[in-house]
Hints:
Elements: H1 2-29, H2 32-64, H3 75-111, E1 115-119, E2 125-128, H4 130-136, H5 155-163, E3 170-173, E4 181-189, E5 193-200, H6 202-237, H7 248-276, E6 284-286, H8 288-303, E7 308-313, E8 318-321, H9 323-340, E9 346-354, E10 357-364, H10 389-392, H11 398-408, E11 412-417, E12 423-429, E13 434-435, E14 447-449
Parallel strand pairs: 7-9
Antiparallel strand pairs: 1-2, 1-5, 3-4, 4-5, 6-8, 7-14, 8-13, 9-10, 10-12, 11-12
Amino acid sequence: MRYWINELWRLGYMLFGLGAMGLLLGELGGHLLAGMGWGLAAGLGLYVFLHLRHVRLLYVWLLKNPREAPPPGTGVWGDLFDRLYHYQKAQTQLQQRLRDILRRIQDSCEAMRDSVVMLDPQGDLEWWNSAACDMLGLQPDHDRGQPITNFLRDPRFIAYFETGDYREPLLIPSPVQANRTLQFHLTLFGDNERLLMARDVTRLHQLEMMRRDFVANVSHELRTPLTVLAGYLETYSDHVDQLPQRWQRGFDQMQAQTTRMQNLVEDLLLLSRLEIDSPDDDRDTLDVPSLLDSIAADARELSAEHHQLSIETEEPRQLLANTKEIRSAVSNLVFNAVRYTPAGSTITLRWKPWHDGSAIEVEDNGDGFDPIHIPRLTERFYRVDKGRSAATGGTGLGLAIVKHVLLRHDASLEIVSRPGLGARFRCVFPAARVAPALPTSPSSDTSTSA
């Protein structure tokens, strides 16, 4: 505002001076008013001329090189030139800093051994580092702007890319070298743009396969000697009255530990098969209420009637699944509830609709556990209470088996628990795994308990 006031004063002085001069000349010539008018017109013309001159200086300066010092100006034009120059200088410095940051980011990505690929909102290639050329076969000369699915044509990657759920990485063979295993991870940013990162995990994948093969082979080799030991112990148990009394405790412990090792080997073999074998394409039409009835009967026998078991059926539809695998998964959940809840607890088996699909729930009102353990519960041999591991007779592999069975059925495991409030394990199956209900008789029950 101060500059505009100064400019108005400057215009006033100019008009006053030229008007007074015109008035003086008009008085000498005998035309007072005409002289004053010509003086004012001359003042306005001079003022406009000065502004036009500054406009031309501004245009020439911006056209040639605005990074150079601005032309000299007077009044508000001088201040305008200075402000534009400082603004241009600040913008130039900011652009240089941004260029340096982008250059460092690109240099950092180039130094990475992992592939980094930037995709636009349509999924087309925008930029990638050198590692992507080696892992994915991208060529910087003519691949820019092409859809990423033109180069990664594995159906698993296309499904992973289109779902938009990138919480878990994807492992598939390299499109360039089939003997290399790559781990892909997509991240959304900006306006639905994507950052694709690919890591060579061939060595880790080979080690994982070696571990699986080792566990499967060792478990298989242990099966024969354990069977022999169990057979001899069973034979000796028929003549236990002939054994010395001091051997009785050791004999009982050998029987218990042999049985425990046999259960462990069987669980290890089952877990190895679930990890290695491909999921079966054949799906049984599973009557879940009947399955829950059968599992509840086994659980009552294990519990020795110390727990209250009930079954609730809220879902009339059936499940498309491998009967043996689902039975194994649900049995593990129910037997864990029997082992880890105190006598007198209630265990509920529930078959219910859940969102678009259905769910099998195993819920108890036992002691519960701290939610901090939930992320690790499905790890092999992980136990919430290690002090009770020997007393319960479990192998520590039950929830790991549940997790792999559900993965093979496109399902997921949800766990909710609080200390003192019991625990709920929910097996959630998608709509594709649910079949229409069979006709039922009017007298059929939907809930049983014992």
